[in-house]
Amino acid sequence: MPAQAPAPVPALDTAIAPAASPPSLGRIDAAVHLGFAVLMVASVVRYVMRHSPADNLFVLGLAVASCFLYAVIAVLAQRRRPWAVWMFALVALWAVLVIAAPSFAWCSFAPFFLCRTAFTGTVAYVAAGATAAATAVGLFRLGNGTDLAMLLGPLAVGAMLTLIYDRIEHDAAEQRRLHAEVSRAQGELAASERRAGAIAERERVSREIHDTVTQGLASSLLLLEAAHRAWPAEASRQDLRRASELLRRNLAETRSLVHELASPGLEASPLPDALLQAATQYVPDARLLVTGQPRAVPAEVRHALLRVVQSAAANIKLHAAATNATLTLGFLPSSVTLDIYDDGAGFDPAAAAPPSDAGGYGLRAMRQRVEQLGGVFSVESTPGEGTIVAAQLPLHPVVQQVVREAGQEDA
Question: 265 is in which domain, residue-wise?
Answer without folding.
Answer: 189-394
